[in-house]
Amino acid sequence: MLSRRQLLKTGVAGAALLGLARLAYGPITPDSLYAVPAKARFKVLDAESRTALAAIARVMLKGALPRDEAEYETALYQAVLGCDTAIAGLPMGVQAEVKELLALLNSRVTRRWVVGVGASWETASDEDIAHFLNRWRFSSFLLLRSGYQALHQIVFAAWYGNPQAWVGIGYDGPPKFMEGYWNA
Amino acid sequence: MPKDVIAEGLASGKWDVRDAATFMRDQTLEADVVIVGTGAGGGVAAEILSLAGLKVVMLEEGELRYASKHFNLKEAEAYPTLYQESAGRQTKDKGITILQGRTVGGSTTVNWTSSFRTPPTTLAFWRDHYGLDDMTVENMAGWFGKAEKRLSVIDWNVEPNVNNQVLMSGADRAGIHWSKIRRNVKACLNLGYCGMGCPANAKQSMLITTVPTALDRGATLLTHLRAERVLQEGGKAVGVEGMAMNHSGLEPVGIKVTIKAKTVLLAGGAINTPALMLRSDLSDPYGLIGKRTFLHPVNVSGALMPFKVEGWQGAPQSIYSDHFIDAFPPDGPMGYKLEVPPLHPVLTAITMSGFGEKHRQLMQHFDRLQVVLALMRDGFHENSRGGSVSLKADGTPLLDYPISDYVWRGMRHSYLTMAELQFAAGATRVMPIHEDVPGGGYSSWAEAKAAIQSLPLEVLRAKVVSAHVMGGAAMASKAEQGVVDGYGRFFNLDNLYVMDGSVFPTSIGANPQLSIYGLAARNASSLAKTLTGKDIAWPV
Lengths: 184, 540
Known about the structure:
The structure holds two protein chains of two kinds. By secondary structure, chain A is mostly helical.
């Protein structure tokens, strides 16, 4: 893991970090796939990003995802699909920034040294992922904090935007009586 | 069967509404006045100028979405379709997330209906510091009165929802004064979904009031059209060049639309109007375009109540407190206004800090969650100079808004106030929305008080949001101090006007919609008189 001093020496400034990592280590070598079925429905997320986001969402949504195994897989898949929808709705410039972030998560080198997750996303433990999220969340580097906040925003918007996720939060959804309002 | 004014207007065959996303080739239109933006400023101006008999063309980057066809109360659909940048527009360092509308009606289609006249202190500050001598309370009162009449701004006498009641009772017990918020609604169903577009057309937004009148009077509305630059010729503004956007509004489709007009009126809202001016390479001898952009930066405090709050139900904002606006003079400590937001799952989940079990435990109590907001009155003190709009490489705007220590001090003060009043109202836990606050927050006012004193205040730790963007094309009596004069006339090019929230030389210190309506009505009426020689009776 890079120490704070090493990071400072590398001249951490915005996305420059990503650029540096890529310059230094060449093209990104992605992890193999997490068990998220690849379907053509994804608009922006490639297989590697889906794997990384599924692992992150699994930890961020702990307690929110259903316990039943089959339901769990479907729900996690829905969450990643929701992330894809959320990202696809962002302006192109912002989408480019999110893709930079995903590239950082996906590259073996940056995953290990900047993200701080040694194992592939497929095999990383919940503890490792939670540790990474908290490290970024409380980092003294604005860039890493903004990376955490972006993931937080994308994952939770994706999850709670789905009516299926409202079970257990005491919210029944918008008032049903409005559905036929204009045809009454 | 209720009637939707938009559906009927479209069906009548009399409206000229064109979706630029469907255009197959470049085109040119002509108008007396081209208005960029259909929000609070553009909507009012379009109505008044159309009533004067002028041929108006309205440009809107968003889509024409309306109650009977689109407004289904779902956040997941509303945010990407009705807001700038999917409701996730951010400042340069990503420290502040901004809610701003991008749809026909602009932010008025998605706002929470809170209606305040420009506070007397704010007008006095403008007179004293920006030479806007005639902006007295008396002179402006007539315009606010007209706007209130036109847009049905009423006393809201329905019982406040529990979220607002907590603010009220907590304020009472903490010795802080509060008042009721007036709202621009007719036959409001008290649903609580204003932010997703009013599904019953109760909210008197530009979408269902002024824009339809303008269309009835022969105006043209072009949607999915991003204004790219103001066209200039011989020291005059002569039109606007726009780019047709695709249906999602995310990408230009490569079709150019030119509107030639004798008068160009910018009302794309703060951030977007200054950005359009910057893209147009307008003369800016004092470097003022985009500067002094204000946000009413907001910090947030959550609380768990021992009773149901269900903050998604009922008029979102009906109670406010100006205690700490009134207590502090503009040149004193940072003043702030207290209000509450509506609580819906997506906005709540992304606002609450933390993740995993702790986040979920909070969401499990979503129905007992109460939230108070503090809106900083920025722009009045020399240590609160707001932000600055510049252009990204792709020409889209970027707001750099550094939060000064002076503003942070106001936020710490307000975290304390909000926690005190939430406990006073019976909260069992209070959690300032800040990453360093432990999951579950604090269990007593004493604990909260001690902890808040030492919270590190920096961006992306403290949650800071904004729903009010103001300034960036400030009005002043002299060109050294402002981009436009008090009537919205641009100082450095003839026939170019700005009539939206970007003309405010400071923040308003209150939710800004009515300030924009009143000022736009005054300035558009003046412009109508200039162009036609007629006095326009408004509202009709």
